[in-house]
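Thread: Newbie trying to understand structure tokens

Hi all, I'm a second-year student working on a class project, and my supervisor (Dr. K.) asked me to get a predicted structure for one chain before our next meeting. I've only ever worked with sequences, so writing a 3D structure as a token string is new to me. If someone could post the tokens and maybe explain what I'm looking at, I'd be very grateful. Here's the chain:
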Amino acid sequence: MSTDRRPASAEDPATPGPRAEAATPTEPPPQPADGAAGSGEAGSEAGGPGAEPTVSGRGGVGESPAGTTSGEVHTDQPPAAEPEPDADQPDQPDQPDQDDSAEPGADGGSTEAGGAAEKGEAAPALSEAEAELAAQKIERERIARRKAERQGPVDAGAKLSGTAADLLAAVRAVESGEKPSPVYFDEAPTTPRKPAAPAAQPAPRPTPPAPTAAGIEGVRSVLARGGAPEALAGPAATALGEDAAEQLAHDPWRLLAVAGVRPTQADGFARALLGPEAGPGDERRAAALVGWLLEQAALKGHTALEAPTLESALAQYGVPDPAASLEQAIGEGTVLVFHEPLGPPVAEGEEQPVRVLVGLEGYALAEESLADGLARLANTFNDPADWEKAATGPGADLIRAVSGHGLVTHTGGEAARAEPLALPAAAHELGLRVCLAAHTPAQDAVTVAGLLAGTEGPGRDADGQFALDLLVVLDAPQLDVETAAALVESVPDGARLVLSGDPGVLGSAGPGRVFGDVLAARACPQLVSRTPDPGPIGELVSGVGIGELNQVDAPGREVVIVPVRDAGEAVHRAVQLVAESVPRAFAIPADAVQVITPGHGGSAGTRALNAALKERLNPGPGRFGGFDPGDRIVHVPSPGRAVPARVVSADAQGLHLDAAGARIVVPKEHVESQVRHGWAVTAHQAVGARWPAVVVVLPGDAAQALSRDWVYTAFGRAERHLSVVHGVDQALPRAVAEVLPKPRTTRLTGLLRALAAAAQDQPE
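---
Reply by user tm_fold:
Sure, no problem. This is what the structure looks like when written as tokens:
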């Protein structure tokens, strides 16, 4: 599949015959329609100081399923007017039209909207997702207490119109997964300027209590005066706390704390409340923008940003003096500043080069807690064992390393998963308590989310830590910094932790680059598997991992290229492959064939593909909010989790699902945001899982969405057969060779190196 060498092409894997070169499309790739993959919308008019910056359609590292669309900030371009909401807007940041596995919209139909708080109904019982989030909240509070003890330094509106209607529509579009928020900060920053001295860091803020009815009513009154929809009262009161009404009246830009609200919309709200006083240089506006921009960067995977990058973004929003505004935000404790040394230590009397990072307190606390926890496990382990008798087979080297160390990393492809899977048997022979955790449901493993929530795994001891001696975490690249911090903090002193995964796959949905940072810090033993992935698919995927898209010999038609001219033909060929060709040629049932495509929107995104596949495989009226019994779906109970399941029934409780034998009930008010059809998914939803056969659909308008890690992840999901519906021509080999994952700005590597250096300097 390079410029002059590609895998054999065949329109139907069931049809024998000589292999041929993949045909070059006779028509140019179709231009993206509104919201199609690869499109980056821009307003038709140039904006003023408060207008949104110009954002390209290309995103960054992985297609984070955080439910937002990202792009690159062009610092040399003037701001452009904010685009109107579009139901087919891309759902994910990494590629244009990305995963929204955090908040996907339903594929068809609708469910009842409106929260129980606004309707006066009794609060429903906690759902699985709410229970999980509550458990993680408790863990974060415990982490904060431990940090404090250590005293470690911390370097409805149907009749609305105008602005109110636009604001409500935009918020609802984001919450439903139809319209994502752009994210920024992909470009390399300019040379950092020397900042002011860092301000003292504030203590962690307590979580605000749930809003009362009186508090919500006060917020509703302020919103009405500013022309904002009253439906924002509940979310605003929840985000800002009991005094939300007073905060908004004094500082209208605090409305940016509500998910889906954009700076231009907050500016309109502020002008309605404050009149001429609401100018672009208002200190309150600048402070709110700093926090909002950092939250948008977190959706892209960053835990911090370099100061020049943040100043550039502030300038695009019309802030007159970005440097002064950022310094003021730092001085007031709105954000934290960190000086990270660059290069080796310098001689005494010389100035150490540093990069200046700015971040939010929550992510800073999580990153530092994670670094402390990893260092704790590495330094408190004092019980090496002789596992030589158990060190046999493909995992022998890993077993030996784990026997003598508290923290070990392991890297390798899909075939290499057999090595960490051998650890539990070896540890059980020695009477150790072992837990195997994975990102997605796997045989003999619990999920990381279930382990943290307490619904799976060994449970916790009296101190709140896991009752185990060895924790093996598969799919470690999917760990975001907050999840990893909660996980590591729960591993007891003296226990062993193994982080295993394939560094070539797409990154985590949430902020952070945990696995990559731990590898880069080299603070623990690292085992690199030499076990290659077998067969033609393994050969193809291994080549992609090093930037080569090679032709592979597939005598059993394990890899088939199906050239197409346009998105319509791509959908037709994908349905034919799933329903007829693959089952007939390989005796693989249609339910075991997974379709993967770059994004949700567009003419060959998951929505279009799922609609066509449902009509062919399980036609029905969609009487349960767009779903019928037997529908194949993906349940997204929380950001970064995509659980495959099948619809069983529906009643007053909600939608009943069967997830590999486990019954799940999704309340009807959450169906639209947590459930989407699952015959076709995006690569981020597929990461961590494998199927007997995979059909990867690459329509022409998805060319800009492709990158090496995306192709590596999508192709690597196939076990026995891979069909590539190919409509991007030379964009595919170019993406594999040239489009690398965009880096995430994080602090974990530096923190781990500093802790390791400090440990070496301490006297024995």
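A couple of things are worth pointing out once you decode it. DSSP finds 25 helices and 19 strands in the chain. The chain has a mean pLDDT of 79. Feel free to ask follow-ups in this thread.
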